[in-house]
Specification:
By secondary structure, the chain is of the alpha/beta class. The protein is built from two helices and eight strands, in the order αβββββββαβ. Bound molecules: copper (II) ion (CU). The site of copper (II) ion has 6 residues, from loops.
């Protein structure tokens, strides 16, 4: 009888542990992915967001088109979203970015000239000397 009680107790603990693991796993899945997600708002005609000190590593853009016409946004020389209609959103994975200065732009014809360009600065753990001047 004592053995049976012990077995039941062990089984209960095992079930409890399994539930705990499952809860932990689903919780992790619901949280943000590793790295940095930068919120980007597109307007007519600007790319808005906090781009001045993005931590190096995995970077992705969560983009919403708050403009009245379609736009896209991409990393110069890298990936770019599809055209987004007004009100539409997209997530663009930029991959792993080392420290440096990158350019975000909208490649709809004429939009860079209208102002749809932004500087994205990725900062790392190693100290860097910032000597550039902003235009
Ligand atoms: Cu645009």
């Amino acid at each position: 009888m004592l053995i049976l009680v012990g077995f039941v107790l062990a089984a209960a603990v095992a079930v409890g542990a399994a539930v705990w693991i499952r809860d932990d796993g689903s919780s992790a899945a619901g949280e943000a992915l590793p790295g940095t997600t930068v919120e980007v708002s597109l307007s007519d005609y600007a790319i808005n967001g906090s781009f001045s000190a993005v931590p190096s590593g995995d970077v992705r853009l969560h983009v919403v088109n708050d403009g009245a016409t379609f736009h896209n946004v991409g990393l110069r020389g890298g990936r770019i979203t599809n055209n987004l209609q007004p009100g539409h959103t997209a997530t663009l994975d930029l991959g792993t970015l080392p420290p440096g200065t990158y350019e975000l732009y909208c490649d709809v014809v004429g939009h860079v000239q209208l102002g749809m360009v932004a500087s994205l600065t990725v900062v790392g753990t190693s100290p860097t000397t910032v000597s550039q001047t902003s235009s």
